[in-house]
Amino acid sequence: MLHMGPVILAIESSCDETSASVIRNGKVLNNIIASQNVHQKYGGVVPELASRAHQRNIVPVVDQALSEAGVHARNLQAIAFTRGPGLMGALLVGVSFAKGMAAALNIPLIEVNHMQAHVLAHFISEPHPRFPFLCLTVSGGHTQLVRVNAHLDMEVIGETQDDAAGEAFDKAAKLMGLPYPGGPLIDQYAAQGNPNAFTFPATSMPGLDFSFSGIKTAFLYFLRDKVKDDPDFIANNLPDLCASLQAHLVDMLVSRLKQASDLTGIREIAIAGGVSANRGLRKRLSEMAEKEGWNLFIPEFQYCTDNAAMIAIAAHFKFKEGMFADLGVVPQARMPF
Predict the structure, then answer these.
(1) Triad 195, 301, 176: Cα angle to 5°
(2) Fewer C-beta within 10 Å: the chain N or C terminus?
(3) Among residues 158, 113, 111, which one has the least CA distance to residue 138?
């Protein structure tokens, strides 16, 4: 098996998904994900419960990844893991497991930046964007505009200065009484609603940065005033509310992406992160790509949310450059890009 190229086990545990993936010579063999349903009744991820669930899931998830790939642990050349950013307790489970396994097998460790891995998910399967390209990375915890010059050469040219877009979706859903995670539910209801039914104020930021706290507050006050006059307002207008809110958030994202494309002259455009699974965003970007002449890249749904396959492909490129971590490495809840 060694002559077939580097075989790497990758582990992702930054939030509430325990995931493992095996990659051989740049080809991802699987992408095993164990989700955590324990958070639903709390309306959001509870860090302590997340770390406990990771402890329960990590051994069976890794075993399944190795077994399905037909790879024995002794044939691994490296262990990759998410170092950060993420929830400290959740990260600690994955980092500790990776360090212990690497030490036991006497093979190198590869640390991976979670946000860079989201971008590199575009290289798991064909077609690949050409360098340089712009990537709009949108998740529950982050919103970034990234100029990607090479696999391991990226620059953040714009980012949120407060809340992330994914958080705005989930918080708005909670205000409307939708269960967690609410972002995908807004997307579902939006498909049945009128995106022009309601308008909300836009938050203006300098340069290419984003701000989503304003729309979240405006939506809160809007619902409060409407429900005061009509207690059934939300129930009677749910599809239109979701469609209008989603259209507003998507416009905030896409307008900044267009601005970045105009400023840089880059027409190779990609999206990444959990919110890139949003159908409204995908549709709007496809329309914009046709209008602007962009070469648009949208990842498969399984590579949008947190997953180990993206950690694996990032590790593949770092392995080629001999970029290994020390056994003393520790997780970082906030990690420089």
Answers:
(1) 40
(2) N
(3) 158
Residues 6+ apart with CB under 8 A from 132: 147, 148, 149, 264, 266, 268
> Where does 133-278 have alpha helices with state H?
165-175, 183-190, 213-229, 233-264
Count of structural domains, the chain: 2
How far is CA 247 from its chain centroid? 20
Say which residues have a Cβ less than 8 Å from residue 160's Cβ, sequence separation at least 6.
142, 143, 144, 209, 210, 211, 212
Strands of 295-297's sheet in order across? 153-159, 143-150, 133-138, 268-272, 295-297
Rounded-to-5 percentages of helix, strand, coil across the chain: 50, 20, 35
Q: Tell me the pTM.
A: 0.94
Check whether residue 34 and residue 134 sit in a common domain. no
* Alpha helix segments (H runs only) across 163-232: 165-175, 183-190, 213-229
* Rounded CA separation 50/99 (Å): 20
Contact at 8 Å (CB) between 259 and 266?
A: no
pLDDT at 313 over 90: yes
| Domain identity same for 90 and 231 | no
b/e burial code for range 186-212 (CB count within 10 A of at least 16 → b): bbebbeebebeebebeebebeebbbbb
**Residue 47 has what pLDDT?**
74
pLDDT of residue 234 exceeding 70, the answer is: yes
Whether residue 233 is contained in a domain is answered as: yes
What are the DSSP E strand ranges found in the chain?
7-12, 17-24, 27-28, 32-35, 78-84, 109-113, 133-138, 143-150, 153-159, 268-272, 295-297
